[in-house]
Amino acid sequence: MKTKRNFAVLCLVLVMVVSLFAGCGKQQQPPASTQTPDTTQAPQKSAGGLKFPELPNNTLKLTVNIPNFGTSPTDTLVHKEWEKRMEEYLGVKLDITWNITPWADYRSNEKILLESADIPDVATYSQGAYVNQYGEDGIVLDILKYRDYMDYYPLFAKETFGGEAFAYNPDGTAYYFMDGFVNPENITGAQSFTSFAYRFDILKQHNLKPATTIDEFTKLCADIKALIDAGKIDAKYVMSNQDKNYAFYRGFVGIFHTWDTLYWNGQKWSFGPIEDNFRTMLKYLNQLYSAGYIDPEFSTDDGAMCTEKAVNSNHVIVPTLWSGMARVWNTQTTIEGMEWGLAFLPEHSDYGTPWKWGSRQEGRSLQTQMGIIISARTKYPEYVVRMIDYQYSDDMIEMMNWGIEGVTYTKTADGDHIFSDEILNAEDPVQKAADYGIMSSSACRTGIPFTPLTFEAMTEQIPGEPWWNPVDGYYEGKYWIESGRLGGPESVSPYDRPPVLRLSADESTRRAELQTNCDSYARQEALKFITGVLDINDDAVWEAYIKGVKSQVSDFDGTLSMLLEKSDLSSLSR
């Protein structure tokens, strides 16, 4: 049961840090502060050109709403250190009332809280650009009015792909601090759908290897099918899915340089499921299905059933899966010697290096969906803005992600961080880290979420999984690292680096309607093409399908044109 819980917790944080497409623009901004930050001394009331109001009893009293991700942060070592460092940095005492709510309940009540116009001084936020209307109505603070009180957050905005146009609105406003990510080693790894899972134990037994090309994959499927038919492999089918909620083709779209929804294809906004490349992919999947390689229940089995089949030798390959599942299957099986492992996506000769979904950005970056909002009615916005900005400093990021040096981690001579043996050797390393309040555990988020997560701390806590590549052979690796190392720069897909979109509320609605309505229709019809209910080789049938996709919205082509017109193409150079 602990394995399942750990995996669920890890998935939660990994999903949250997934790069999202939505972004905002910016025009002329106030000049940045020229003050050189000194984190060893608290800012004076009128230091470096900054003016701070006098506080009663030199105490900053705030009400802060944050979610609980499984372990409450308030009594943890890291949270206490957060309060200590904040008081030293601000030069004041903190008197914070923490309103803490389970994450699921917190998210369901966020919009209701905004609509009530009665938000606390500070609150965790997870609704992306939705907050802008409440900023315009004077409910949420425009943090850029206090840009001179920021020393660290602007660095994240500048280094993010798209730059300040991504982080700030076209009219020079910004109504929330966006969630951050720190990737100092510039590892462009991805979270999921960048590898195929194979039964390594079966491949080794029959002197087979994972596929590096799509032709090798086709032959491997045929070889496995022949061994199954001959009774030499104890399985029913060559392959199946991990969950019906993941369209089976999600694992293949990157190989054919397309995508399964609305996306930036490197030159324009396109709807992947009507592209020629997508049709080529469907033809290939139809061939696999017609050959009897795919479990017929691949589109109806839920996650629990797919897991049951995977751990009971129903199939040998899973092309569409979430990271961590290979490890989960290995721990849940009762079959002696079963070993699920991963290999990077096979390459198609016509398209080159496969595209992977969710490639991390290099250096510092911001994410649009999550962040922190401040009430426009807070009494001391100068202090509040400076307090949240400090969470983006190197010192605070290190402390919140790693804990206390000498207690929860040590540093090597090269400056690398290593969690303590107490954490790494614990039966449940994630929970042990959470007990200290270490936010990179994802099970406990100290301070005011969402604050920058570091790649190194996140990946060190994630258990490894079996991997294979033609150079190293079979070995243990970690999904985020291996998907970046093996894929290389060419595997970073254009839909992970789109231009900044500057859309009005109505234009955002048009975009969302196209994606939602057309996705649903395309997914249903694509399944028919895979299983042969519709003839993927019939041009007339394909054209009728395209017409059906476009009919799901009032102006399909016009919406795509609008998206291109509203794209800040200069942001692509960031």
Structural category: alpha/beta
By DSSP, the count of extended strands is 17
Described by strand count, sense and barrel closure, the largest sheet is: 6 strands, mixed
CATH homology superfamily name of the largest domain: Periplasmic binding protein-like II
CATH class (first level) name of the largest domain: Alpha Beta
Query: Based on the structure given, which CATH architecture of the largest domain is correct?
Result: 3-Layer(aba) Sandwich
- How far apart are the termini? 44 Å
How would you explain this protein's 3D organization?
The chain has helices at 2-16, 77-90, 103-116, 132-136, 153-159, 163-167, 200-205, 214-229, 276-290, 303-311, 325-332, 381-390, 394-402, 421-424, 429-435, 455-461, 479-487, 505-531, 539-550, 556-565, and strands at residues 59-68, 93-102, 122-125, 177-183, 195-199, 262-264, 269-271, 317-318, 340-344, 363-374, 409-411, 417-419, 453-454, 465-469, 473-477, 500-501, 567-568. The protein has 2 domains: 26-182 and 365-454, Periplasmic binding protein-like II (D-Maltodextrin-Binding Protein, domain 2, 3-Layer(aba) Sandwich), CATH 3.40.190.10; 195-357 and 465-567, 3-Layer(aba) Sandwich (D-Maltodextrin-Binding Protein, domain 2), CATH 3.40.190.10. With 574 residues, the chain is of the alpha/beta class.
